[in-house]
Amino acid sequence: MNLETIQNKTILLFGKSRAFSSAEFDAQMLHHNIKVLKEFDEDVALIVEGKMMTPYEQNASDNLYESRKIQSISIDELERALAEDMDADVLLMSLKLSHDKERLLAFIKNSMISDTLFFRLLKMYEWNGEDFFENDENRDVTAALIGRFYENIERNHNVQYATLGLMHLIAQCKNAELIEAIALLEPLQKHLSHQGENANRAIIKSIVKHPKTPKSVLKIYIKKADIQIKILIALREDCDALMQKQLFESKEKILCEALSLNTNLDKNIAIALMKEESHAKNMAHAIKLDSDLFEMFLDGQSVELATNSSLVPQMQERLFVLEDEAVNAALAANKALHEQMFTELFSLENETISSTLYANAATPQSFLRKAYEDTIYHHALAKNTNTPADILLLLGKSTDARILESLAKNTNTPVALLYQLQLDSRFERFVKENAAFGAHIQTQNIGWLV
After folding, report:
1. Which residues partner with 51 through β-bridges?
2. Which run of H or E residues covers position 228?
3. Residue 36 has what DSSP assignment?
4. Model pTM above 0.85
């Protein structure tokens, strides 16, 4: 609604305000020069149906609408218009100068204000060194935060009043601004260098692992957090060169090890880490390769290099011509293996390498179908998520416990076969832990009990 249509006019309010406190609602009405009555008057231009209306008020509202054709709106519509019209800068300055914590808390709990204003108000709130639920005011602010952003909050109201609710909120969050707001809250900041494990530490770790966490937060954590948090940052693919440099210059061995596992490791840092053999092996396996990096690892870390998922066909061919069995076995397990390389590796007629290839989900199904003809490769096929469903069903007739266990774990195994396997106590747990079977049960909603 447009507030200008009722400025300098009179409204009739049945019930009470909802999002705004009574005092704040009255102040807003005064600011907009709107007169509020509780009983009908000839000057009434609008009826507002508030919360907690009595049966008498409901009947009176209905009668007035029918007899006098006076427009009626809900309190939510009016309060939403008030919130949208509010000057955020003026409000924040007023709160800052007045130090009115009660009013600040009321606005934080106001569901009608914008998210942008909510974040600005949240930054003003003082937690006084106490935890999220350590006093009533902190609890109300935390509940307002979770309740505002938690998806499907109506299905689980209790999540607002548990620290676990913040964990769930972060897990489902796709909003970088929200993650930043949570990350900078005082109860978390004071646990950045905390040695023990607790709920707040778990929240911090979930923030550090979240793909949407802004770099501004990660940089603060690099400066303030302990080594466990820094390890998680060092492993992030979006840990940029400057952040990597800060972590590397700490000279902490465990941080260097974490950096060596980073896919997007800066080349200069990679060269510096080459001095340590274990770091060199980690980098050969994990780092995103270019021609220079490939050459750097080719002589000393060829086996680890063969497992790297960023190998291009030419690099794979260079490794293959080394005629090293360990290198070829590593290549056979590589999920990024080029199509031509499958043919070349199979041509070696090496049973170990062939078994590895038949267990590789990247292996074309034409090879996998042919492999079924030889029972020696049945176990490898049972593990492979790319094995055709009809072949997996045939493997389900096996009496080999290893094959049946692999089928129970395979997310591509047909559901009908998984139902059969769960009846066998040897494989029941593996079926229940199978993500595809769990998803099927949830979809079908048939009351399956874990």
Report:
1. 16
2. helix 227-234
3. E
4. no
Residue 46 lies in a domain: yes
Report if residue 25 sits inside a domain: yes
Integer Cα distance of 442 and 262 in angstroms? 35
- Pull the structure tokens for residue 106: 């009321």
What percentage of the chain reaches a pLDDT higher than 90?
Answer: 84
pLDDT tens for 120-131 read 999 999 999 999
Give Cα 14 distance to the centre of its chain: 43
Write down the mean pLDDT value for the chain. 93
Task: Give the model's pLDDT for residue 448.
Answer: 46
CATH classification at residue 42: 3.40.50.10190
Give the residue from 121, 84, 78 showing the smallest Cα distance to 103.
Answer: 121
- The two three-digit tokens of residue 288, written as one number: 């995103």
Examine the fold and report which residue of 62, 85, 108 is the final residue of a domain before the chain moves on. 85
What is the full DSSP assignment across 237-299?
Answer: TT--HHHHHHHHTT--HHHHHHHHT-TT--HHHHHHHTTSHHHHHHHHHHSPP-HHHHHHHHT
Per the structure, the count of domains in the chain is 2
Q: Give the domain extent around 63.
A: 3-85
In a domain? residue 200: no
Amino acid, res. 179? I
Tell me, yes or no, whether 110 lies in a domain: no
